[in-house]
UniProtKB/TrEMBL annotation:
Residues 31-148 form the YbaK/aminoacyl-tRNA synthetase-associated domain. SUPFAM superfamilies: YbaK/ProRS associated domain. Pfam families: tRNA_edit. GO terms for molecular function: aminoacyl-tRNA deacylase activity. This is Prolyl-tRNA editing enzyme YbaK/EbsC (Cys-tRNA(Pro) deacylase).
């Protein structure tokens, strides 16, 4: 852990500041996408927590966390926020979080962000979350995700075929 990249170290320090016992590790393989992370870690893609940044209508950022197997339903997201949302480009993501796309963690951002947790993510005991670089991750108990500043829980994922999602 002493040799963590500066961005990964920042994430480790942010978890510690929240009192969360997540340990950042840097891996030889890429973790930029949920599929890459799952393959590198040898786990199911469901166990990967995606951290996605969206731009709200007023130009503010919102961080959405959901399982690697799911996609954000942007209509639900807009309804939850009460305003239009759009995908953020890489420059906006870096400006709001301090991290590049593919390594955006749930903590340690340069700005305070509204964070929305998809309720299905919290059904898991633990997940792997990005930790500041395309090679760094941290295993986090999902109950600890509730400690994230400005965190709210909502149903944000698209419906999966053959299942129903409560509104």
């Amino acid at each position: 852990m002493a040799d963590l990249a500066p961005s990964a170290r920042k994430v480790q320090d942010a978890w510690r500041a929240l009192g969360v016992p997540a340990e950042v590790v840097e891996l030889p393989g890429y973790t930029r996408t949920a599929a890459e992370a799952a393959a590198t870690l040898g786990c199911d893609v469901e166990e990967i927590a995606k951290s996605l940044v969206f731009r709200m209508g007023g130009g503010e950022a919102v961080l959405v966390m959901l399982s690697g197997r799911d996609r954000v339903d942007e209509t639900r997201l807009a309804e939850c926020l009460g305003e239009a949302v759009g995908k953020a480009d890489a420059a906006f993501v870096r400006e709001c979080t301090g991290f590049a796309v593919g390594g955006v963690p749930p903590v340690g951002h340069v700005r305070s962000l509204v964070t929305l947790l998809d309720d299905a993510l919290l059904e898991l005991d633990a997940v792997w979350a990005a930790a500041g670089t395309p090679h760094a991750v941290a295993r986090v108990l999902t109950r600890d995700l509730r400690r994230l500043p400005n965190a709210r829980i909502a149903t944000l994922r698209e419906r999966r075929e053959g299942t129903s999602v409560a509104a």
